[in-house]
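Dear support,

Our group has been running a series of protein-ligand predictions, and this particular one with 5-O-phosphono-beta-D-ribofuranose is the one our PI (initials K.S.) wants archived with full inputs and outputs. We had some confusion internally about which version of the output was final, so please treat the block below as the authoritative record. The input we submitted was:
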Amino acid sequence: MVQVGIVMGSTSDWEVMQHAVRKLGEFGISCEAKVVSAHRTPDLLFDYAEQARSRGLKCIIAGAGGAAHLPGMMAAKTTVPVLGVPVPGKHLGGQDSLYSIVQMPKGVPVATFAIGEAGAVNAALFAVALLANGDPALQLRLDAFRRQQAESVLAAQLPEAR
Ligand code: RP5
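Confirmed final output from the archive:
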């Protein structure tokens, strides 16, 4: 059964959002990736949100750029946790998306991550952490990931000064 839904406003968001898909795959989490646009396909957005809980989704990672209403509108229509990823666009460097996603009115939360690849990866890691609350084997994999990450930083060598 699909555990995590990954939605994005456009195919042009895939370059960033594929990093979330890849990271979930590394942890063996089953996910689906789909274009769902708040503006161009609003009926699909409503259907996706309304069916999310009954389909067994544990969280939804939603990435969008520009007037990034997808995460907020998704959160408005479901209580399945929504993790928002601001995708940088051509003109404003993603700050427009960040502000659109982070400034939710009280009562309808969206967990908001960094702009771009770091946000996509961290949204996936956050989804892993959520799922690990009820899955001790997954928690061990998450702990191992953190250990390996620390070891690779500790082993890193800086280049010679020029
Ligand atoms: C948003 O508009 C999408 O999330 C995308 O980041 C942005 C631009 O979409 P395209 O014009 O590239 O399809 O809805």
